[in-house]
């Protein structure tokens, strides 16, 4: 059964490398958003290596994701717990069960559906290190993905591999039923483990030989994939060659624009707050970290705000549940060829999952508003 989407923005934090500060960033990001008046749920999806509860000083028996996995509760919101930060809620990954680290596809889909149904302004998902398929899928399913890294060769390389692996995973998700392109994507994703010279262009060349009509879609998928980059444990705002080449390689080789949001300082005193990370933000030693974090938060909020402004001008709905998205997708599919070509239809159907408000605005501009259904989605003539 499709639950209604209530979560307004789903943010995922990943990075490829272990120990770079993903969990510290997730907690401090969530705490800062709460401080700005937003309703936030933090979720520990580092299945197998969960530690948010420890970092938040929640020890002992509590409800956690394991209750959801074991079907001891019906809905995910039953395992949401309170933290020491008023208004910051947590879904803890404590009480690890071996089966949790590799949920099957139907359990994963169910979990995602329940995450979307959580009633919050922001859901912040802390993901584990590495690039197993589940981590990549949770990253792809978020509205905004953060890559946290330190400016060291191994961490930068892991971030790069995570980004290109996730792009191939995303492409595979779209073309999984394409008889010729799907196997090519699988073998390319595997070959990329051995060769860092594998580029999106290699795939595009094959697309142009096999099915050129799929090209706009490939282009759209890579261009729409815009992870935000955060550098952790940096002393000054030095221009770092490694980071510069990560950003330029993503653009030139994969058509992926990384959005660099800024850096967070290395603060050794953080080690005194490992059982209460939110308290670090309020402490005098955390003030520089907090200032940098606020600048990062402001930058990504601006992006979200832009979309809201457009939606407000047209007075369009901003949050769409799964059923509505599906209905709009069907309307696009049934449009006559004269209105949209097959390729355009595929493109707008895909975009529907990233930017439903923009798709609705586009359809209205195309004069596709005779369907009574759209009357629920906009309020001005
Ligand atoms: N800006 C910072 N300054 C100093 N120490 C930091 C900073 N950020 C994180 N750390 C320290 O680095 C360690 C690892 O941080 P964290 O657990 O957030 O990493 P992670 O990427 O989530 O690791 P994992 O991959 O194991 O989940 C912690 O001990 C934390 O205190
Ligand atoms: Mg972590």
TrEMBL record:
MF GO annotations: ATP binding
InterPro entries hit by this protein: P-loop_NTPase, ParA/MinD_ATPase, YlxH/NBP35
SUPFAM superfamilies associated with the record: P-loop containing nucleoside triphosphate hydrolases
UniProt KW keywords: ATP-binding, Nucleotide-binding
UniProt key word Nucleotide-binding: yes
PANTHER family found in the cross-reference section: CELLULOSE BIOSYNTHESIS PROTEIN BCSQ-RELATED, SEPTUM SITE-DETERMINING PROTEIN MIND HOMOLOG, CHLOROPLASTIC-RELATED
Protein name, UniProt field: ATP-binding protein
Organism name: Candidatus Magnetominusculus xianensis
Organism phylogeny: Bacteria, Pseudomonadati, Nitrospirota, Nitrospiria, Nitrospirales
Gene: ylxH_2
């Amino acid at each position: 059964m499709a639950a209604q989407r209530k979560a307004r923005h789903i943010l995922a934090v990943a990075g490829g490398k272990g120990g770079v500060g993903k969990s510290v960033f997730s907690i401090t990001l969530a705490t800062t958003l709460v401080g700005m008046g937003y309703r936030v749920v933090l979720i520990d999806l580092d299945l197998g290596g969960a530690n948010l509860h420890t970092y938040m000083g929640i020890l002992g028996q509590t409800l956690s994701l394991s209750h959801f996995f074991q079907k001891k509760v019906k809905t995910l919101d039953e395992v949401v717990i309170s933290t020491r930060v008023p208004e910051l809620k947590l879904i803890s990954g404590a009480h690890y069960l071996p089966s949790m680290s590799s949920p099957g596809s139907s359990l994963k889909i169910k979990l995602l559906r329940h995450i979307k149904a959580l009633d919050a302004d922001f859901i912040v998902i802390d993901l584990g290190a590495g690039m197993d398929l589940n981590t990549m899928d949770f990253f792809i399913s978020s509205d905004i993905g953060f890559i946290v890294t330190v400016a060291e060769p191994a961490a930068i390389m892991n971030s790069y591999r995570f980004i290109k692996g996730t792009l191939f995973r995303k492409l595979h998700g779209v073309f999984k039923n394409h008889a010729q392109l799907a196997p090519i994507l699988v073998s390319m994703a595997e070959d990329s483990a051995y060769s860092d010279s594998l580029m999106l262009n290699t795939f595009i060349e094959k697309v142009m030989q096999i099915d050129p009509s799929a090209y706009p879609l490939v282009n759209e998928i890579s261009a729409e994939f815009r992870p935000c980059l955060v550098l952790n444990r940096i002393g000054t705002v030095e221009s770092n060659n490694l980071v510069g080449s990560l950003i330029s390689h993503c653009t030139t080789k994969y058509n992926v624009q990384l959005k660099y949001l800024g850096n967070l300082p290395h603060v050794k005193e953080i080690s005194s707050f490992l059982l209460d990370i939110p308290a670090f933000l309020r402490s005098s030693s955390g003030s520089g970290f907090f200032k940098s974090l606020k600048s990062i938060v402001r930058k990504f909020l601006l992006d979200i705000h832009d979309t809201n402004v457009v939606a407000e001008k047209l007075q369009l709905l901003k949050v769409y549940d799964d059923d509505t998205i599906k209905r709009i997708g069907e309307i696009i599919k049934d449009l006559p060829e004269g209105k949209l070509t097959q390729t355009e239809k595929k493109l707008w159907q895909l975009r529907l999952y990233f930017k439903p408000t923009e798709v609705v605005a586009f359809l209205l501009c195309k004069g596709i508003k005779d369907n009574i259904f759209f009357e629920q989605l906009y309020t001005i003539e």
